[in-house]
Amino acid sequence: MQKIDTRCLHAGYVAKNGEPRQLPIIQSTTFKYDTSEEMAKLFDLEASGYFYTRLQNPTNDLVSKKICDLEGGKSAMLTSSGQAASFFSIFNIANAGDHIIVSSSIYGGTYNLIAITMKKMGIETTFVSPMSKEEDLDKAFKKNTKLIFGETISNPALTVLDLELFAKVAHKHGVPLIVDNTFPTPINCRPIEWGADIVLHSTTKYMDGHGISVGGAIVDAGNFDWLANKEKFPGMCTPDESYHGIVYAEKFGKENAFIVKCTAQLMRDFGSIQSPQNAFYINNGLETLAIRMERHSSSALKIAEILEKNEKIKEVIYPGLKSNKYYALAKKYCPNGASGVISIILNGGREKASEFMKNLELIAIETHVADAKSCCLCPSVTTHRQMTDKELLDAGIDPGLVRISIGLENFEDLREDIENSLNNL
Ligand SMILES: *Cc1c(COP(=O)(O)O)cnc(C)c1O
To answer: How far away, in angstroms, is 84 Cα from ligand 1 center?
Structure first.
């Protein structure tokens, strides 16, 4: 098999003789057929093909094929956003009356989705520490538990999930492990190699990498045996009346059942489709993902090491640092680097944090991460500004914390910008 940096360029779309060299954008909502009978087969899931872009589009499929290849999965799909990818991957197997186990260290948007919106839909959640031991996880299980969910390197706390342990415990209880692999990307970590069953992405971050298009992706490892756990997954293992009684796990096997069901039911009903134009942008980003991740990761590590020695900074949080409590896990799961996001805690709380950010010239203040251009955000003066210092500390956020997403600028320029800002505090 070709190396992953080669596959970033060539997996998915392969041009045949006389065809366009670049991925074609099929900007068409609909597809034409000669007979109704042919189209009927598609509606009945008897044949695979295109009929309406809300369900599937050739450009989107080629980009999902590339992401699937990079993650080492068996089938995949794109979604309109990372949020849609998280929702679909959970709701495809957990419904009203079910219970799920979720790492407490996850993206704020995912937390709201699970703790508030999915709760209203009747899905109950037990949040567990990402540092949970086997017996802690065992205790969180209930009869109606359907899955475990976590983030490889979490946004924004930068904790690292013990993938092998979480996968082992999930499988012991007959449920899949779903992993949000947005921050490492398959360049730095491939959760499927450690036992994850479903991997999802906010492609908005490093995969696009240029802050152009919001998007998401879901990849199925194709390893989870739904039929062996029939009673837990009726949606997968009993007839779907909306498709003439098809049983997904039987008809499509463990390699395809999850994605076919997710497309045929959830995409059909919720319509959170990626636009082909944006899928093209994601593909453009994917072509350079490997070299970008290498640069993001190496610059972030160098900056983190320098800042750790600066007396104006109380703490630097980056799993690639030897002093970080997740260092061993980061080395194990992300041997190529811990990506480009670091957090620093300034002495002097939110005032100093705010001043530090104002002094920066190159690094922009943005609610964004994982972009080619460096950016930063201070929760205590923006996203969490309504909270008091005490409330922030109780939530595990130091008021002086600034999250910096290290971009692709020359390392010396980044260093100068940060050091100038610190010197002027
Ligand atoms: C941004 C993000 C999401 C949500 O993705 P959107 O594309 O913004 O919907 C989910 N998970 C992680 C880890 C993220 O960073």
So the answer is: 9
Strand order in the sheet with 341-346: 313-317, 341-346, 401-405, 375-377, 364-365
The Cα 206–Cα 219 span in angstroms is 17
Instruction: Answer yes or no: are the C-beta atoms of 68 and 74 closer than 8 Å.
Output: yes
Pair type for strands 198-202 and 216-220: antiparallel
What 3-state DSSP class applies to 76? strand
CA–CA distance, 399 with 397 (Å, rounded to integer): 6
Instruction: Calculate how far, in angstroms, residue 77's C-alpha sits from the geometric centre of ligand 1.
Output: 16
* Nearest atom (ligand 1) to Cα of 83: 9
Residue with tokens 């979604």: 79
What are the structure tokens assigned to 240, written together? 């779907």
Ligand 1 centroid from CA 100, angstroms = 20
pTM of the model: 0.96
Residue (of 97, 93, 84, 108) closest to 382 by Cα position: 108
Pocket-testing residue among 102, 149, 155, 185, ligand 1, by greatest number of atoms within 8 A of Cβ? 155
SS3 percent helix, strand, coil of the chain, rounded to 5, is 45, 15, 40
Q: Over the stretch 291-324, which tens digit does the pLDDT of each residue have?
A: 999 999 999 999 999 999 999 999 999 999 999 9
Q: How far is the CA of 90 from the centre of ligand 1 (A)?
A: 15
- Cβ contacts of residue 126 below 8 Å, gap of 6+? 99, 100, 101, 102, 140, 142
Which amino acids bring their CB within 6 angstroms of ligand 1?
81-83, 86, 107, 109-110, 151, 155, 180, 182-183, 202, 204-205, 214, 216
pLDDT at 241: 92
Is the distance from CB of 37 to CB of 322 less than 8 angstroms?
Answer: no
